[in-house]
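A student in our group prepared the protein record below, which I am reviewing. Here is the record exactly as it was handed to me.
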Amino acid sequence: MLAWVLIAYGLAGFVLVAGGSVIGLDVAARVERLATSADGALASASRSTRAAAGAFTNVDQSLAEAQTSADAAAALARDASGTLASLGLAMELSIFGAQPLLPLAAEFDASSSQATALAETLDRVASSLGDTRPDVDRIGAELEELSDELDSLRGGADDDASTPPLRPFVILLLAWLLVPAAGALIGGVAMLRWSTGPESTA
């Protein structure tokens, strides 16, 4: 009875190993392909996110330069407004009771008002740029963090890192399972022959 149990165990082991070799190797190949594809997708997403973060950093620098330029232009516009206002007052010069330059004074006053309005507009633009910069900084920082998280999902692997092969591991596992099955089958057959040997000789 023990011999037949060992033989049945060995045959069942061979059947399981055969089925595992067909199914396990196919599953391992699929897992390898999926892992490689997922790693490539994560790597591409990480690179794209990091590039976007760099772009927002460049945008922040551009906004800072634009804000500085707007502030400088606003200051120049205010200076021009003051100069034009002074010229307008100078054009009100009276010569023997006559003011021949008075029409020019009105034009200088109008130009001074326009320069003042331009300075106010530039101030609003500079203020708007200053309010936008913190949002840009926050978005850039969040994108940088997202890129780091994507890299951590990849396990910190390099772009040229390959997926660990699973099929050799499956083959070794099947071979390890095959050893006791073969041993049981051989042992069962040997025990069966040994138990039937004396009867046949008798």
Summary: Residues 2-90 form the longest helix (89 residues). The two ends are 21 Å apart (CA to CA). The mean pLDDT is 75. Residues 77 and 117 are 9 Å apart (CA to CA).
